[in-house]
# Entry
Amino acid sequence: MALPPDRATVRAMTDNKDDPNAFGIWDGEVAVELPKEFDASLYYIGRIRTPWKQRKDCPKNARESEAVCTVELEPRWAPALKDIETCTHLVLLYWMDRSRRDIVLQMPRHYGVQRGTFALRSPARPNPIAMSVVRLVKADSNKLEVVGLDCLDGTPLLDIKPYFASTDAVAEAVVGWHKARKG
Amino acid sequence: MALPPDRATVRAMTDNKDDPNAFGIWDGEVAVELPKEFDASLYYIGRIRTPWKQRKDCPKNARESEAVCTVELEPRWAPALKDIETCTHLVLLYWMDRSRRDIVLQMPRHYGVQRGTFALRSPARPNPIAMSVVRLVKADSNKLEVVGLDCLDGTPLLDIKPYFASTDAVAEAVVGWHKARKG
# Structure
């Protein structure tokens, strides 16, 4: 869904509001000028190893694949995995480092309707942090084997959290635009 | 749970491994030296308004409070809220800007047992990104009213995502160390 990053394109595009297609923004997509400065900074704490080397090979969503993926943590952070083996499920946060950050209205190709960025799980967003709920298969010193990812091989890892059903599981939640599309 | 940030303390502490209590690390807590450089950067896209001005006033977890909190988005990003009113629940990512980032083993006061940082939801973690699932009460231009937060007033917002029960809700998930503590 994400277009390749291209700062020059972003700037040119926002300077040419009359021709939003001129620099590769798709029909129906709208970009804004990014803030001049960043506000905070991140460490990559490891990498995610998956079978998918190109975006076209990735499953469309994580439920499509039972592939076991590997989370490789930098040795510095390995002690922080203590007790994680007692968790059946985890929340992983990772960084979609090739995503555009300036698009506020998107036209996902498989839906064909313009949607707001915050109503989508597209990697293109102001802070391209992806969130996935995964099943923990195995924990081993600085590596975790998990099921439930759909990202590219080598994706930078930002955080690992225990998944608490009491606060994180909302079975009755509805994404109206998505439901309407299917119904 | 998080100690106040203090870069000098962090450095001093990691230079004094023989006396982990000397600079305010609690018994049973372990810090590591932080990486020399950051790898990526974030924009604050807005602020979260809550009734809680000090950490001691915050609910211990989000299920303890039915308080309606307000997400105030910077006007730049407001168009990205399109369609969000069709979502019953959202994932919010926000930045715990006052947290230490170097602690790998923690001693949460209300548990009294040493745990790995990645087995905890404590704000003290290498990338202090908090994740909360909230119920959307009202969406209005650049403001959202939501229920399910427990953070300080003024907390910087990083991302808003639609919550998909199909991939995000795992009712049977178990955090073993937490269950054992209660059982």
Remarks:
- The radius of gyration of chain A is 18 Å.
